[in-house]
């Protein structure tokens, strides 16, 4: 987008007047915001990028540049003000937004500040580090005891601090001084604190004068439409398998270890297992011993192994078990004092000891590129958490060829919503895997070492090794896995397209374009309108979940079952009448 000097001068005078009016009104009214948001008065500051900025831009990876260009074009040319991008863990999302913020045009003079929001201290500090590295902008952090004056170009704010119901901390910021809000780990953006902040800045509406940009590795919408309130479009997506192939992320060697602990007895909430219950079943000596022995067998030569445990007591018992078997291990949890945590992390980064055990601390935002082995000893139903845990090992680092993932799948019984490496790849988690080696560790164990209370303690494990994620895909691919997470009668009709008959309510059709799934609804009665539903996703599973929720919300539970379920009693002729080609509508 370019402007002539003449037009630029005139527009600047015009915008100054508007800006003064805003100042006197203090906060933009909706109608003013609409006027201001017209692109003809949006100033193009891309010409103001300094030589230092250009140097930094040259260091960006091709997909990072492409992402920035796509988002700016969607913003300036297509007027999509609230965007979210879907990029895998370790792809450099912080690097991307650190470079993006310099290029976001001010909507009017004086509106040149950027608010970066995140929910964890590590993320705030990482944003500070990267923005300082890539620009000369002044930066302040506003979080808890770190109180910002509010004068800097970039405010990195904790959503907990700024999103409090008492608004003292946020009120020092004048929304008219801001051009953009960046949300790191944007899948959290539906939380009430984020909503309060967005509302305060007037960024809760499509017509906002701000550029609202979020990034996440897991733009998933199991709740159907929730993220749609916050963002209008997923404007860029890159798959983590592509990133591995292009060598921007390191290869994963995956070893699944199936133990015969029966997870079906562990209590769950709608999101994940209940931690206390999980710990009761899984934090047992025999299982911890299997974990350490597996490490010794398969990963002892690795330099930096990160272990995910269930809770504080699990971190303590696993650390002790590693030490008992002669492995130098440290544990960190919420109980660890901050200065001790910092020292342990520093030494782990310097490869001074090989095993670090944690629970819930080193997930999002932890940047320790030397991690070359991940032990998942904390089963989860949350694909978001699962991906975040694996992501800690996918960063590139010199002297690191790949990252070994030891994925403990604690159940021979079928838990359809358990997150495992196959589910990460969108595959059926309960698929029968080939080439399994049976190990019966407990047979070797002296009687006296056996745990006193055995609750489903593992006696056998099955180990399956894959040298890269593509092998898992080769082994487990197939569309039938949709049935594992949806009761509806979805049919695959093309490489990336699926349909579901809603009988007298028409059909839903999912298609994939530019790596994003979209869905259309075609009515049955004439005129047969086709409407695009406001649901998009980067993964088939979350797309199907969202569509299933939409069906329930639209037709009610009873009718949703009758019209869509594959278990419903209705004539199959109806289903087979769907045109099984991928063309046409
Ligand atoms: N263009 C680049 N040049 C060099 N290093 C880069 C580049 N982009 C990213 N990195 C490095 O890759 C690592 C991951 O970057 P970053 O923390 O920004 O990723 P992320 O996507 O935010 O990760 P997460 O989702 O885990 O928070 C960091 O060590 C960072 O320095």
Give the structure's gist in a few sentences:
The protein is an alpha/beta fold and 585 residues long. It is 35% helix and 19% strand.
Overview of this structure, please?
By secondary structure, the protein is an alpha/beta fold. It folds into 3 domains: 5-238, P-loop containing nucleotide triphosphate hydrolases (Rossmann fold, 3-Layer(aba) Sandwich); 244-477, Rossmann fold, CATH 3.40.50; 480-576, no CATH class. It has 20 helices and 20 strands. Strand 5, helix 8 and strand 6 form a beta-alpha-beta unit. Helix 4 crosses helix 5 and helix 5 crosses helix 6. The structure holds adenosine-5'-triphosphate. Adenosine-5'-triphosphate binds at residues 59-61, 64, 89-95, 126, 217, 364-365, 367, 369, 391, 395.
Looking at this protein, list some descriptive labels.
globular; alpha/beta; 20 helices; 8-stranded mixed β-sheet; 7-stranded parallel β-sheet
